[in-house]
């Protein structure tokens, strides 16, 4: 079972408030701006198409999407955002990737390093842990709102997904990044609600954490997730469901 997936479930439950929705909009706008640098045509830019699909899935107004694309292409001012992936180790030695989008590299690296240090982790060099992850499309579905396993599996595999995994009370649909939009649209057309959907760094192997290391890891990830410049946090930690429930 994927520790990141379990964390993602908690994270998206927390994202239900209006304040979180506003922060979610900010992150998606940054992703649209970065993606639009390669071209503002949604049909010919797969990354932009994925970002716009995510924006629409959270009911972002069309005008917001349009302005973000124009800032990214340079048609409007305000598109100077750098994309950086920080790497390091959390408590207990779990690998951590921090996907950031910032207009001030020095500020962001200092604050991310401080977060690692605060909870007993440390930042590493570029490439130190990235090899432990694979870039994949990840769609999480509440099992109670999904059709039966056989029906769901047939639906997503026919749409181009690679795998369907059970993660506690959720289903996790894994696909190649280029299949993300097609698989997501197929799920949406079937009127199956999703908890989250996006391109993620999925760990190849997992590291079991318990006790102080487990609680420290969750606190580190939560602190990083709250940072305004952090788009996503990925880790290969795994925590037993029983321990996770007590830590929540």
Question: Would you mind describing this structure in some detail?
Answer:
This protein is an alpha+beta fold and 248 residues long. It folds into three domains: 3-73, Arc Repressor Mutant, subunit A, CATH 1.10.10; 82-131 and 205-239, YebC, transcriptional regulation domain (Alpha-Beta Plaits, 2-Layer Sandwich), CATH 3.30.70; 132-203, YebC, transcriptional regulation domain (Alpha-Beta Plaits, 2-Layer Sandwich), CATH 3.30.70. Helix content is 45%, strand content 23%. The strands form three sheets. Strands 3-1-2-9 form a four-stranded antiparallel sheet. Strands 5-6-4-7 form a four-stranded antiparallel sheet, sandwiched between helices. Helix 2 (18-36) runs antiparallel to helix 3 and helix 2 runs parallel beside helix 4. The mean pLDDT is 87.
Key descriptive features of the protein:
9 helices; single chain; 3 domains; 4-stranded antiparallel β-sheet; 248 residues; Alpha-Beta Plaits; 45% helix; alpha+beta; Arc Repressor Mutant, subunit A
Task: Compile the SSE list and pairings.
Blueprint lengths: L2 H12 L3 H19 L9 H12 L4 H12 L8 E8 L5 E8 L2 H14 L3 E2 L9 E10 L6 H10 L4 E5 L2 E6 L4 H10 L6 E8 L3 E2 L2 H16 L3 E6 L1 E2 L2 H7 L1
Parallel strand pairs: 8-10
Antiparallel strand pairs: 1-2, 1-3, 2-9, 4-6, 4-7, 5-6
Helix pairs in contact: 2-3, 2-4
């Amino acid at each position: 079972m994927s520790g990141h997936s379990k964390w993602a479930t908690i994270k998206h439950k927390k994202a239900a408030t209006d304040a979180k929705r506003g922060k979610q909009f900010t992150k998606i706008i940054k992703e649209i701006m970065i993606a639009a640098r390669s071209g503002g045509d949604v049909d010919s830019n797969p990354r932009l198409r994925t970002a716009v699909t995510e924006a629409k899935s959270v009911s972002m107004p069309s005008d917001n999407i349009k302005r973000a694309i124009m800032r990214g292409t340079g048609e409007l001012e305000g598109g100077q955002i750098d994309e950086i992936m920080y790497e390091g180790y959390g408590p207990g030695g779990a690998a951590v990737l921090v996907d950031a989008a910032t207009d001030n590299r020095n500020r962001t690296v200092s604050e991310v390093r401080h977060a690692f240090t605060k909870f007993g982790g440390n930042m590493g060099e570029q490439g130190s842990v990235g090899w432990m992850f694979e870039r994949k499309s990840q769609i999480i579905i509440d099992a109670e709102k999904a059709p039966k396993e056989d029906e769901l599996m047939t639906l997503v595999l026919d749409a181009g997904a690679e795998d369907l995994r059970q993660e506690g009370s959720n289903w996790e649909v894994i696909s190649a990044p280029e299949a993300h939009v097609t698989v997501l649209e197929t799920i949406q057309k079937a009127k199956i609600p999703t908890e989250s959907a996006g391109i993620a760094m999925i760990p190849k192997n997992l590291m079991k954490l318990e006790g102080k290391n487990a609680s420290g890891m969750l606190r580190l990830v939560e602190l990083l997730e709250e940072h305004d410049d952090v788009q996503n946090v990925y880790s290969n930690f795994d925590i037993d469901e029983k321990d996770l429930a007590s830590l929540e």
